[in-house]
Amino acid sequence: MQADNPGQGRLVLAATPMGDIGDASKRLRDALGSADVVAAEDTRRTRALAAALGVTVTGRVVSFYDQVEAARTPALVADVEAGKTVLLVTDAGMPSVSDPGYRLVSACVAAGLPVTCLPGPSAVTTALALSALPVERFCFEGFPPRKAGARRAWLQTLAAEPRAVVFFEAPHRLAACLADAVDVLGGQRRAAVCRELTKTYEEVRRGTLAELARWAADGARGEITVVLEGASAQIAEPAELVDEVERLVADGVRLKDACAQVATSGVSKRELYDAVLAARQDEPSS
Question: Which partner from 26, 86, 174, 279 sits 20 to 30 angstroms from 76, CA to CA?
Fold first, then answer.
């Protein structure tokens, strides 16, 4: 790949297939075969990708994952300054989007060096399109905090977020994350859990947070992207939801579970539970 001006290097960010090799663009194929340096999150996966595409990588291949990103950045910036084309690829999707890349891009920009991008697959936009939720406006939250307390505090910041929210989650933490979401955001808020996008076992589960939490309790595998419906502009009062809770209780649902299912982004499970008890106390005795 030649720079725009003879002798001028540049950094090229390239999106790679998330699963289906057919999603690779011609520009990615050309870049892999012509770049002077290929900075790869996993060099083995990048070489396997090139082989699957029938491309021979002629440039130098260096590893560029989270733990070495800071240490490797100065040398790669020096390569661009020396007139080389450095191609940055991650394991799947777009560099810098919850993947290595930000430090290198920032360093090249600070040095006044050209940076460009070969667009392509992204789990963020793919999940939004498949969610069947209103996503005209959305925000991306990366990965939730791992610890329960921090995760619940993070979820609280989304309680009144009017935009759709996209985030990634590890499969072994999905059940706990969705259970916390039910408690903090209410069981009725809609969401979609997208698993193994573009791969053989792609699966999209859509429903309320309560429904998805029950499904996830049995365990999930693969790479997970979650789309959360934006909060409603109208926030119900706890007393307005009491009858709905009582209907579930009459059907055999435990009071606490019913409150979790009916709670909304503006009414917590605890507030609703207290409202039900208060309403029961106000009922005339027979």
Answer: 26
